[in-house]
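Recall the central idea of this unit: under ordinary conditions, the amino acid sequence of a chain determines the structure it adopts. In this exercise we apply that idea directly, starting from the sequence alone.
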Amino acid sequence: MDYFEKFWLFVRKYLFSILLIIAGITFLIVGMSKGGSQANLAQSSNFTFAAIILLFLGAISLYFIMEKKIGKAITLISSLIFLLGAVIFIYLNISTVQNTVIQLRKIEESENLAKQGLSDIQKLQDAYERKNRKLATSFEELTTFAKSDSIKVLDKAIGDIPSRRMTVAEGRQLGYKYPEAVISEEEAIKLGLITRIYKMVPVADYTFSKEKDDKRLYDFELDKLNQMRQLDNTTKDFTVKAVAADSAFNVLFQAIPPYGPQDPANIKDTFQIGSLIEVNTKSNWK
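Accordingly, the structure predicted from this sequence is:
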């Protein structure tokens, strides 16, 4: 018998059992680890238990292969054990995958709820900065601003700004020594070339009136601006920090994790808007 035949005989006799053992050891290591980079979750106990069954099946199969004389009864019992073990292994792995998918979906939905709340804060903060030339440093400031203040918005526009050069007569009418090369909107209004009619609109109505209901995850409620919604219908508060910088404040709003069933050991991001090192209202997610 040459080497190739010996190798092929070895493969036929032992390879399947050895592969089962190697797979069981590999899955057991993965199951007992705290990794799960893609899922951001530790592998469940079902996965670990399924790995142990796979390892046991490999060891049992290798034992029966190495034994020369095995009775029919033992062969039948071992076959039933193999079949039952395979069924349990498949069931536990399917269950693990399904549970992981459900958990990932809940985490994503919880993250989206946090982002929705921060986006509402961001819109009001932007409006506050445009009106007051500074940032609000508390939820009280934002809610009071949204309830009691108004923003001037364009209600009606008649005519377009001329693209031509300003005439000498128009320059004199505006009190200029020489006419400007380009007519601005303000100058066009003073000259009566165009009409712009503005109206005052409550901040909250203007800020959220353009949003369609199907784009929101929940109805906007100004009195709950500081509350981060969660899947179980409970809430927890967003946090706000402000640091004095020259004559203004740098302000940071954060949604503190975990988000939903997220494992605290696998938290990588904290969603936020603003900054403590510069004046802005940018978010840190795409």
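Helices lie at 3-32, 45-66, 72-132, 139-148, 168-173, 185-190, 203-209.
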